[in-house]
Amino acid sequence: MQELLVHRRRRRDDRRDDRQGQDAEERRPLGQAKARKWAGDVAALLAAHASDPPAYSQDPAGHLIDSWKQELKDANVKNALTQLEAQSVDMSRIWGKALGVDSGLQDSLVYGARDNAASARSDALDKLR
Description:
The protein has helices spanning about 1-50, 60-70, 80-85, 85-100, 105-129. It is mainly alpha-helical. Helix 4 runs antiparallel to helix 5. The protein is flat, with a radius of gyration of 22 Å.
């Protein structure tokens, strides 16, 4: 009798999991649309508060942040999420340029930032799912 109850419970749980999977598939486009809208809103807000970057020698952090915000002015709803996700890559590029490092080191910094950001994003998505 116990085995029969366990078997029925598993079948019920499997059906529930199937329905949840179908629901998630149906909601995915809605989630992507909301994510694009959110990213567009965030990029627009950040770009609206962008000022001319100060000289790196006077304010290194301000130079990096304001330079990055200036780049967000070109973002639109379709690419804003991608542009926000590329923040560490963009800031590494801006920082290397401001420091005047050679192109080999600058490329290395950018590639390292990209790889670390992709890994962190993947880890976060795994944990949030």
